[in-house]
């Protein structure tokens, strides 16, 4: 940070004849929009009770305002302590899959704007076909994702097919910085 010396009487009335003033330039190293929005998605994922995969989503409008966030979780009124969280069971009804609301769905239903047309969505995991349908119908134009770990599953292949047909772009997130630390100290 550069400082310059200014001579004259301090307007602060401190009697100083010479004072220093921080140069009027913007701070360097600030968090840029893409890293900020994906960080919100990553942080939001930390709310998930899913023991295996925590997902976060953050919907952003063209003015860079966040209009919805969500994470994967059980529907309202369905206790996290009662619902199953397992991936496999002898009966599929005893797994999490028929019940859990995906992060993207929750980001849509939590939205604080009339609509999300022209928005982009930051997600920590590539959307499935059901979320892709929601994304398309809501008018989202861009998907930015971190993990594509389910790329070989038909849910994700179908999602990509739907995005390709509808002109929705999907881009793997490239962070400017490797790590962001939240320090409460
Ligand atoms: N785009 C996605 C994909 C998955 N989820 C949720 C649904 C489950 O809670 C979890 C996936 O569990 P896994 O099969 O990896 O054990 O992630 C989502 O919210 N959004």
From TrEMBL:
Keywords: Hydrolase, Metal-binding, Nucleotide biosynthesis, Zinc. Residues 32-163 form the CMP/dCMP-type deaminase domain. Pfam families: dCMP_cyt_deam_1. Residues 1-10 have a biased composition (Polar residues). GO terms for cellular component: cytoplasm. The keyword Transcription does not apply. GO terms for molecular function: dCMP deaminase activity; zinc ion binding. One of its GO terms (biological process) is pyrimidine nucleotide metabolic process. Zn(2+) binds at residues 102, 128, 131. PROSITE patterns: CYT_DCMP_DEAMINASES_2. It catalyses: 5-hydroxymethyl-dCMP + H2O + H(+) = 5-hydroxymethyl-dUMP + NH4(+); dCMP + H2O + H(+) = dUMP + NH4(+). Residues 1-21 are annotated as: Disordered. InterPro entries: CMP_dCMP_dom, Cytidine_deaminase-like, dCMP_deaminase, dCMP_deaminase-rel, Deoxycytidylate_deaminase_dom. Its cofactor is Zn(2+). Its EC number is 3.5.4.12. The active site is at residue 104. The keyword Zinc applies. Belongs to the cytidine and deoxycytidylate deaminase family. Catalyzes the deamination of dCMP to dUMP, providing the nucleoside monophosphate substrate for the thymidylate synthase/TYMS. Also, part of a nucleotide salvage pathway that eliminates epigenetically modified 5-hydroxymethyl-dCMP (hmdCMP) in a two-step process entailing deamination to cytotoxic 5-hydroxymethyl-dUMP (hmdUMP), followed by its hydrolysis into 5-hydroxymethyluracil (hmU) and 2-deoxy-D-ribose 5-phosphate (deoxyribosephosphate). Catalyzes the first step in that pathway, the deamination of 5-hydroxymethyl-dCMP (hmdCMP). This is Deoxycytidylate deaminase.
């Amino acid at each position: 940070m550069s400082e310059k010396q200014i001579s004259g009487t301090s307007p602060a009335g401190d009697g100083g004849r010479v004072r220093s003033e921080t140069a009027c330039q913007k701070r360097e190293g600030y968090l840029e929009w893409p890293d900020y929005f994906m960080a919100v998605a990553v942080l939001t994922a930390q709310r998930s009770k899913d023991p295996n995969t925590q997902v976060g989503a953050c919907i952003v409008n063209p003015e860079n305002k966040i209009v919805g966030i969500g994470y994967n979780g059980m529907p309202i009124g369905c206790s996290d302590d009662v619902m199953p969280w397992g991936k496999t069971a002898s009966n599929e009804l005893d797994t999490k899959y028929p019940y859990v609301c995906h992060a993207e769905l929750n980001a849509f239903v939590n939205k604080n704007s009339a609509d999300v047309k022209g928005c982009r969505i930051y997600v920590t995991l590539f959307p499935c076909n059901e979320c892709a349908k929601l994304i398309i119908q809501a008018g989202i134009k861009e998907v930015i994702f971190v993990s594509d770990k389910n790329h070989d599953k038909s849910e994700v292949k179908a999602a990509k097919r739907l995005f390709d047909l509808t002109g929705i772009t999907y881009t793997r997130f490239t962070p400017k910085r490797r790590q962001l630390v939240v320090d409460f100290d």
